[in-house]
Amino acid sequence: MQQIEKENRLDWFMQDRFGMFIHWGLYAVPARGEWVRNQEKMSIEAYQPYFEDFDPDLYDPRQWAKLAKEAGMKYAVMTAKHHDGFCLFDSKLTEYKATNTKAQRDLVKEYVDAFRAEGLKVGLYYSLIDWHHPDYPAYHDRIHPMRGSDAFKAAQHQFDRYVSYMHGQVKELLTNYGTIDVLWFDFSYDEMKGETWKASELVAMIRELQPNVLIDNRLGGNLLAAEPESYAGDFASPEQILPPKGIVNELGNAVPWEACITLNQHWGYHAYDEDYKTAKTVIRGLVECVSKNGNLLLNVGPDARGAIPEKSQEVLREVGAWMKRNGSSIYGCAAASFDKPEWGRYTQAGNTLYAHILERGIGPIAFEDLQGRVKQARRLADGAEVNISTPWNGEAFKGYLFANFPQASLPCDIDTVIA
Ligand code: FHN
């Protein structure tokens, strides 16, 4: 496979901007979030009934892919293995996998096939942490044993065996499932980072198998350093937060980033979590990400039968209605060369400036520093001409353009003017 330079490798990522995160696995059965085993200090035996019961009869990844596409998403990242160690793929290195449950299906293979068939790029999430593997020294009272601890030292030879297992599974995922566009590792902490995972060796293998796969920054390197480690990754991955000013490295250069955000308050399915973000909040978040050179990876947590919650579907469809009319202000766009206006945010692609009107005040919208620089303005959603004027020459209005146009035309009450 031809290797393209890192900058080009990211081209599709910077173009697509909006993806679906999918957290799915045995934890959907207890339906109390993906950390349930640890938070409730369940033994492997206490968690085993969820393995026995897992039977996702409604799993239809083609429907998931169609929903992602309808929402305006261009790529997806699904958990191949989360911290509980359960593998959604047919790994030859463990029996703790979906093909050994009542599902008897390789859920990852069906996912990659379905999303590719709908024209979306496919990513896989892989947990470095593994609460099931006997050689990963996880203690319920301490989720992550400190690397330097006596207990850890005693288990060193075992841990090396776990790292070999982890590398072997990454090799399976990059060998048996076609072109993988994103490998999303999760997560490093304390001493458990970098060469503890033998990360240089791991990334060398990854680059050998699939040179153009994008890797996140959670193997434990410093992506913002002037000279990042080989395993520092291709993009930063802020979680449940948007960086105030975007992300730059020590040299002041913009660093590609992707904010991963939940639709409700949990990554994995939670039967009682009704605290969902509105479509308007999601769209504002997506606009903010792109206005700061970032992507949004928005999470769904399918239930134990393999269905994406109805409320998630409802929000995604409403976001999609806005994207259908305004997507050109997101795809292939980035931060504008103008300061953020008080009424909203700008995104820009080449000579086209998109003004996202998020706050409505009294009277027209004021555009600073744009006099003589705007040939015409249109409301993106319906192509309607937007009247641009420079009012009578009072000092207070000097240097501003003013745009008059009707209240938002879409239910999300966010209008975008193309200038
Ligand atoms: O512990 C995980 C969590 O379950 C979830 O997968 C998030 C998603 O980025 N990552 C870790 C928490 O930072």
UniProtKB/TrEMBL annotation:
Enzyme class, first EC level, given as a word: hydrolase
What's this protein's family per the entry?
Answer: Belongs to the glycosyl hydrolase 29 family.
Q: Which GO terms describe its biological process?
A: fucose metabolic process; glycoside catabolic process
Q: Where is this site: May be important for catalysis?
A: 260
What name goes with this protein? alpha-L-fucosidase
Q: Does the keyword Cell wall biogenesis/degradation apply?
A: no
**Signal peptide start-end:** none
Under Enzyme Commission nomenclature, its number is 3.2.1.51
Q: Which GO terms describe its molecular function?
A: alpha-L-fucosidase activity
Q: Which UniProt keywords apply?
A: Glycosidase, Hydrolase, Signal
